[in-house]
Design brief:
about 170 residues; alpha/beta; Double Stranded RNA Binding Domain; six-stranded mixed beta sheet; 3 helices; about 35% helix
Length: about 170
């Protein structure tokens, strides 16, 4: 009886642990495409806003690192282009005093299998984030813009990963 109970508990524990969704980097769902590793070169910046491509690429790497092994020369490569970086005022305090801006970023993304050149996934993502202007401190406003850009990049990376894994 003790052996039967112990075996049953072991089987239940095994089923729970294998069904939890936890996996090691590089052993995730992208292996179904024959991809165990992927390279992600710095995204191309087609905007007039300088020096944003590094932070944006880092957000995508941070999001995908638990799904696939990120290496210099992988089975596939994700190529990204920052197509648009647009800031528009959305809220005013009084006449011509901007209170809030909306930052919108548009990304073009593509995953290509290195050995065949086959496009496995391709999409364009557009996201926005609002931030507040500090009329007394330009640095604080610039920091708010940077935080909005990083949040958009992180949210876009999460959305891209979901779409890749769902093959959407």
């Amino acid at each position: 009886m003790f052996f039967l109970r112990r075996t049953l508990l072991s089987i239940i524990l095994f089923l729970i642990l294998t069904g939890c969704g936890y996996h090691m980097a590089g052993r995730g769902p992208m292996t179904a495409w024959g991809i165990s590793s992927m390279s992600m070169p710095v995204f191309v910046n087609d905007t007039r806003k300088p020096d944003i491509e590094g932070a944006i690429t880092a957000a995508f790497i941070n999001e995908f690192v638990n799904t696939v092994r990120i290496v210099d020369n992988g089975d596939a490569v994700m190529r990204g282009v920052v197509k648009s970086y647009t800031i528009v005022p959305i809220s005013f305090a009084g006449i011509d005093v901007i209170q809030q801006y909306r930052l919108t970023l548009v990304f073009s993304l593509k995953i290509v299998k290195e050995d065949t050149g086959q496009v496995l996934w391709e999409d364009e993502i557009s996201r926005y984030e609002d931030y507040t202007v500090n009329i007394l401190d330009v640095t604080a406003t610039n920091d708010a813009e940077l935080a909005a850009m990083k949040k958009i990049a992180s949210n876009s990376a999460r959305l891209a990963k979901e779409r890749v894994l769902e093959r959407f």
